[in-house]
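Exercise 3.2. Students should predict the tertiary structure of the chain below and write it as structure tokens, then compare their answer with the key that follows.

Predict this chain's 3D structure.
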Amino acid sequence: MSDLNELLNTDPIREFEKTTGHSYKSNSKDEDMDMLGFHLFLNSMKNEAVERAGDTTFSMSGEDYAANIMDFGFELIYREDFEGTQEFSEPVIYEDSLQVYWHSDGLLLYFDTYNGTRNSGKVWYNWLPDPESEVGRCTSSGGYGQLESGDNWELDNLVWVGDHDCREAVRNNITRLRDNGTLLPVWEFQPSCMWITHWGEKDLFNSYENIGEVGKAPTQRTEERISKFPQHVQNAIKGKQGKR
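Answer key:
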């Protein structure tokens, strides 16, 4: 896993700057083309490495992605089929879906499709890092919540309430969390901005007349969907201490 982690964390611009010995901002036109070529080559290497590891990739179809994560232990708990319209010279209507999955380790994952191809998605979790773990190398977005309120910000009183983009290398990201801490099957906190939406919801930010209410739309839509999840999942993700 370590080689794959190193490859996935490689910044093509930083590596190119090491090669040229100067900032990309001072590139010549030829150097810009070389940097683009290096970026494409590195992305190709990443995709090949992820595929060899049997992990998820950006280019997966919705069906292949679902099969991959179910093989990893996720179960489908909610599906919503929808039509998405794309405006070209003539409107094109796509038949797509929003899908939500649960893993007994306490992982909630959703993704939507665009013309059958897996589009956007996230996986949320609560995680207790090991004292010796490098938290920044295991996490993506999120922040700490305190198990007991007060001035105690020691690691044994903290839970990382986080999420990852679930499109690429989701198995690798989850394995790093497992190897460096404990995933909580019942959450202490629910993320305050946990939105489960899909690209076809073009009404989402226009569903309230009062502009001050617009920000509530994704949260309300998400809560409506969560209310249809199996009860054991609702109980696990509501957060013993509420929203963070």
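Discussion points: The first helix runs from residue 2 to 8. The chain has a mean pLDDT of 85.
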